[in-house]
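Sequence in, structure out. Go.
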Amino acid sequence: MADSKSTTSDRPDDPVFLHARREALVILAVWAAAMLWVVPYCYFFGYHPITESEQLKTIIGIPDWVFWGVFVPWGVCCLVSIGLSCWFIQDDDLEAE
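Output:
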């Protein structure tokens, strides 16, 4: 039993596993960056009382904090996702050796 454990730890990792782990870490980093932008931005710019309607700035008819805090990051994440799927994520052969 001890020999079987040592041979599995000496064996190199499967390339499919390494690619999947790298891709997952990149996707997690993109998600974390988006969250670190959206949550504080919306908190600091969206949750304050407005006494007059003239104080509310709009872009394309929506409040500016929603545009910069939700729509722009959403669009950037869509473009990054398209870029990742076209040029970064690899198609691996899953046939058994």
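Check: The longest strand covers residues 58-59. The two ends are 24 Å apart (CA to CA).
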